[in-house]
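I am writing to request your help with a piece of structural work I have in hand. A protein sequence and the structure tokens that stand for its backbone fold form the material at issue. Please examine both parts with care and let me know of anything in them that strikes you as inconsistent. The record follows directly beneath this note.
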Amino acid sequence: MSREAGRRTGRRPGTSGAREHILAAAKSAFADNGYERTTIRGVAREADVDPALVHHYFGNKRQLFVDAMALPANPAEIIEGLIATVEPENLGDRMIRFMLGVWDNEEDRAPLVAIVRTAMSDDQAAAMVREFATKEIIGRIVKAARSDNQELRATLLGSQVFGLLIMRYIIKLEPLASADPETVARAIGPTFQRYLTGPIDQASIGASRT
């Protein structure tokens, strides 16, 4: 019997090592295919388990990504709670304060910094980070703000989010790197809010690119 035939007729049961096999397969799949193209079924096939077992351990692709990347929490779920309880005109302030609360904890920040460092030098990793952030985090916040030009707003907001992460925690540009969180929140929160709900002259931006 061929190895492929064996894979089709007998999947690995839910043993103690199955979760680790799934995580290893998921990490490889996200790195190779990006977030959008990775599927639960594809990860299950690579890990040689039934897709139901992946759902059993992780629930959905979003949580699978979080666990495979060793993130301290599922940011998308936290964002869902945020947008459910905050009015659009206050999203910018709450968003920056939430991020600083997570990122200023070195243990929580370390996995994200590692991913972003890799993304800065690897196109596939960059695509993975971009797709997850756009679909599961920034895109949800922009949609909750209920403004026009949502795609443009998402990219502008993303530039601020990742710019802050890189400058404060990776490059450690002073005095931003050592500024207290309240100072940073008050300075950047209004910019976040402007990108979410403020006027955006898309025609002018488009003209500047020609």
